[in-house]
Amino acid sequence: MKKIGAVIILLVVAAVVVLMTVDFNRFGKDNVYVEVVEPTEVEEDRLDNGEIMERYRYQQTAFDEQGEAVEVEFTAGKELRRGAYLMLYVKNENEVTSYDEVEWEEITADAQTELEEAR
Questions:
Q1: 3-state DSSP percent of the chain in helix, strand and coil, to 5
Q2: Cα–Cα nearest to 100, from 118, 117, 115, 88
Q3: Is there a contact between 72 and 62 (Cβ–Cβ < 8 Å)?
Q4: In 10 A of CB 84, how many CB atoms?
């Protein structure tokens, strides 16, 4: 009985660790690349305490690792640095779940070619 209890506790601890460390917004998603441009729209929401929150909406063409174009739309809580390169995590072909800033060298050659042509 003690062994079964120990195994159950170990499984529960392992499950908690996995849930705390795995970012499900990025796990198993496809990647596309964009160069940040000016936001398409700035949305302002007034909170109950009177504070104004801004969301920056971006709509632009991204390129997958093979250089294929994908139209994407995503938002950010702050204005992103123009000219920065982002790796977007997408599901269902163009639904952005998260993003990371990347260096030019981290982008695949096919995507780099398309990003240069899109400038």
A1: 30, 40, 30
A2: 88
A3: yes
A4: 12
